[in-house]
Design a protein that fits this description.
This protein is α+β, with helices and mostly antiparallel strands. It has 2 domains: 11-37 and 45-97 and 108-137, no CATH class; 144-289, Cupredoxins -  blue copper proteins (Immunoglobulin-like), CATH 2.60.40. The protein is 41% helix and 19% strand. Strands 3-2-1-5-8 form a 5-stranded mixed beta sheet. It has a 3-stranded mixed beta sheet with strand order 4-10-9. Helix 2 packs antiparallel against helix 3 (108-137). It is elongated and about 85 Å long. It binds copper (II) ion.
């Protein structure tokens, strides 16, 4: 058989070279953007960031793996495959190249293939997906518990239980944006950060106050996302493996101040956490105790 490169073949070869170059350039850009995202403030989004934030908990790491190593390659291959089909159809079956079109309408083998192959792809995705869901929803034995309440004044209330050295609660509010101190992040930094120790399993109990606004509590670096629903106590957990400040934002359209209720958790060493507990007990419990003491002072016994 004699092989002759026709004009159409040459054009096709040129086209496939162009796609290969574009593909390589895109991959390079993704890698560069990923490297750029690895720098900067850990736990906060950065301008130009691509992909998921750097994971600091086992769950977030598993989520990143699921996204980066399983979903992204599958999506990329499918997109490139469909694009290639489109390009072939456009080049091969236009009026000039294919003046008398075939009347073929069915092909049993092909129809079986395009049913079975997507089912297999979904099965491949389902296995790690359900495994991840299982890990997220199975509560390990927790070292400590914090209750987080999304409240109707668009702020988060953090309650540290007495049995674990707490016995106080406080609210976090966004810093005033026009008087933002240097180094503080716009729309993210708050007055009172919640503090947890590093490498400890923290159980989060998440709810909303009874007035009735549904919020959603999210810390992307922890792989934590849980709805805060009035009258319902939801539970999730994390074990942060790196010290730092981690930011999240309410992710349920909850009303007028939806954009101004970030959740901020500072992860510190065990000693720093103990020191913070002592300080926080004084600072926040004093507020609650004060009215009681004042009232008692006026009562004669
Ligand atoms: Cu909200």
């Amino acid at each position: 058989m004699k092989f002759q490169m026709t004009g159409a073949d040459a054009a096709r070869a040129k086209l496939s070279r162009a796609f290969a170059t574009a593909g390589a350039a895109f991959t390079g850009w993704v890698l560069l953007a990923g490297a750029a995202a690895a720098q900067g403030v850990l736990g906060a989004p950065r301008p130009g960031q691509m992909g998921l934030p750097e994971p600091v908990t086992p769950i977030a790491r598993e989520m990143n793996f699921f996204h980066d190593a399983i979903l992204l390659p599958i999506i990329t291959v499918i997109c490139l495959f469909v694009l290639a089909l489109l390009v072939i159809v456009v080049a091969k079956f236009d009026e000039k190249a294919n003046a008398t079109p075939s009347r073929t309408t069915h092909h049993t083998g092909l129809e079986v293939a395009w049913t079975i192959i997507p089912v297999l792809i979904l099965l491949v995705i389902a296995v790690p997906s359900f495994r991840l869901l299982n890990h997220q929803l199975t509560m390990p034995d927790a070292d400590m518990t914090i209750k987080v309440t999304g409240n109707s004044s668009w702020a988060w209330t953090w309650t540290y239980p007495k049995e674990e050295g707490g016995g106080f609660e406080f609210q976090t509010r966004l810093l005033e944006q026009d008087k933002l101190p240097a180094g503080k992040l716009k729309l993210l930094d708050v007055d009172n950060e919640a503090v947890v120790p590093v490498n400890k399993t923290v159980r989060l109990q998440i709810t909303a106050d009874v007035v009735g606004i549904i919020h959603s509590f999210v810390i992307p670096s922890f792989g934590v996302r849980m709805d805060a629903v009035p009258g319902r106590l939801n539970e999730t957990w994390f074990r942060a493996e790196k010290e730092g400040v981690y930011y999240g934002q309410c992710s349920k359209l909850c009303g007028k101040d939806h954009a101004y209720m970030p959740a901020v958790i500072r992860v510190v060493s065990e000693q720093e956490y103990k020191a913070w507990l002592v300080k926080a007990r004084k600072e926040f419990a004093a507020v609650e105790d004060a009215p009681v003491r004042l009232a008692d002072a006026g009562v004669s016994r």
